[in-house]
Amino acid sequence: MAISKIEAQRLAFGKAAHADAKRYIDMEKEDVVEEYRRAGKLHSYDPDNEWKRRFARVAKLYPCPWGKKLAAKIEEFMYYLEEDEDDFRIGLYSLIGDEIVG
Questions:
Q1: In degrees rounded to 5, what are phi and psi of residue 62?
Q2: What is the pLDDT of residue 18?
Q3: Could you give the number of structural domains in the chain?
Q4: By residue range, what is the domain housing residue 53?
Q5: Is residue 57 exposed (0-12), middle (13-18) or buried (19+ Cβ within 10 Å)?
Q6: How many CA atoms lie within 13 A of 97 on its CB side?
Q7: CB 75 within 8 A of CB 42
Q8: Inter-axis angle of helices 68-78 and 50-61, to 10 degrees?
């Protein structure tokens, strides 16, 4: 059975969010700090909000029509991203090439 475009978008988002979560879980704190240091954003590292930031980054990479509750959560999580977030690669963002992002 074929899936719709919206279902495909949601599936891609879900897979990406899961992959980024697994990657983050496997990282040591020192690895995360090093990731921020290499990006020149060590001053913005906040371990209490890191899950929200990573989820928001995946949502930016894989936008799709979400339900009202999830859309509200994503909007809340976007608050934790800096305005210049696109200028550096952290999390799943670091694994993709510039040609994909734009």
A1: -125, 65
A2: 94
A3: 1
A4: 5-101
A5: buried
A6: 2
A7: no
A8: 110
Kindly list the distances between the CA atom of residue 32 and the CA atoms of 37, 39, 51, 67, 77, in Å, as whole numbers in the listed order: 9, 11, 12, 31, 19
- Whole-number pLDDT of residue 80: 78
pLDDT in tens, the chain (102 residues): 788 998 999 899 999 999 999 999 999 999 999 988 888 888 888 888 889 888 888 988 888 888 888 888 888 888 877 655 554 455 555 555 444 444
Residues 6+ apart with CB under 8 A from 24: 32, 50, 51, 54, 91
Neighbours of 99 (CB within 10 A): 6
